[in-house]
Amino acid sequence: MTTVEEAEKLVLAQTRDYGTQSLPFEQALGYVLAEDLKADRDLPPFNRVTMDGIAIKYAAVENDIRSFRIKATQAAGDEPVEIDETDECIEIMTGAVLPASVDTVVRYEDVAINAGLASLLTSEIKKGQNLHLRGVDKKQNEVIATSGQLVGPAIISVAASVGKTHLLVKKMPRVVIVSSGDELVDVHEMPLPYQIRKSNSYTVKAVLKLHHIDADILHIPDEPVITREQINHCLQNYDVLLLSGGISMGKFDYIPKALEELRVEKLFHKVAQRPGKPFWFGRHGNGALVFAFPGNPVATFMCLHRYFLTWLNTTLGLPAKAATYAVLGKDFTFQPALQYYLQVKLQSNEQGQLIAMPVEGNGSGDFANLADTEAFLELPLEKNNFKAGEVFKVWKF
């Protein structure tokens, strides 16, 4: 049986480049930047005032001038107004362009204004104070955001600041979510006593939506010919197939046979873990990947986060995320020789530790328990007894 570490290694070996696309910058949030963003002009593009007050020439302070005639008032966005004499000043607002004839801004709190005169109330004035000088952040054509970053609000801000109306981002793979089984009915239907609703597909679709993948959904009945035809169609039209159910040893689990007939190379089947032991992973000759998860809701949910999303980040070239660890909040025992993914709630203590408190459900079919938890704590298969205070890797969802 494949170990979790071996399974992860095999999955991550199957990354590929799905190309790029251009998106309006305000629609690129959550995608991965595929180009460097450069400043189209110096940042800031002018000597910018950072305090409301008066703009003066510092030479006046050196010559012990304490009162200044106010020549004009200049707001942000106004054309700069120049002074003609050393004892003149400009009332100026935050964000305004500093006129070339002045070099220092004294904030309103440090001046008294009366009858058109501004008098200094402090001697603590430094040349060039309260200014954000042109080009101090970035020079024109300097890179301000590098390719390979996840586009967040800060990147959106940068793009808007440099007039980049469209961003080149990495394409997401084309994904189809495939469920199977005659026991499944549509969400809007009332199940018979021996049926259940198709919840897994919508769970997976919702998770993918958070990662900007708008996956299609397909359901296959328990019929071998239809199974083979539908799987073949998906292999030809999608980059990734996410299957839920139909991969165990049951008499009506036709998917493994269909995958074999369609020459999908099995890279592994069955992982030493719970939930998700029957997990099947393979690759078609055209590059399409098949993640075939067990049909139990918790198993599907865990495998999706543990394997597919890890693969997706690697495929998109995102830097490997540093592992998150948590302290087990109370003793826990798990006997089978399997890597166990314990559902937990997370909290922090006064020492800054992340504490994982077990919320035990009733197995991999207990999807309702997921609503009361927020992560899986990965307990290694080498142990059976886990003590409060021990530290383990945690997978947040």
Say what the CATH topology of the largest domain is.
Molybdenum Cofactor Biosythetic Enzyme, Chain A
Q: What's the N-to-C terminus distance?
A: 26 Å
CATH H-level superfamily title of the largest domain: MoaB/Mog-like domain
Figure out the total of helices.
7
- Per CATH, which architecture of the largest domain? 3-Layer(aba) Sandwich
- Class from helix and strand fractions: alpha/beta
Task: Write up this protein.
It is a single chain. Helix content is 19%, strand content 30%. The mean pLDDT is 91. It is built from 7 helices and 28 strands. A 6-stranded mixed sheet has the order 7-4-6-5-9-8, with no helix packed on it. It is of the alpha/beta class and 397 residues long.
Topology:
Blueprint: H1 4-12, E1 20-24, E2 37-38, E3 48-49, E4 53-56, H2 58-62, E5 67-74, E6 88-92, E7 104-107, E8 111-114, E9 117-120, E10 131-132, E11 143-145, H3 153-161, E12 166-170, E13 175-180, E14 184-185, E15 196-197, H4 199-209, E16 216-220, H5 224-237, E17 240-244, H6 255-261, E18 265-269, E19 273-274, E20 280-283, E21 289-293, H7 297-315, E22 325-328, E23 332-333, E24 339-348, E25 354-358, E26 375-379, E27 385-386, E28 391-396
Parallel strand pairs: 5-6, 13-16, 13-17, 14-15, 17-21, 19-24, 22-25
Antiparallel strand pairs: 1-12, 2-11, 3-10, 4-6, 4-7, 5-9, 8-9, 18-20, 20-21, 22-28, 23-27, 24-25, 24-26, 26-28
Helix pairs in contact: 1-7, 4-7, 5-6
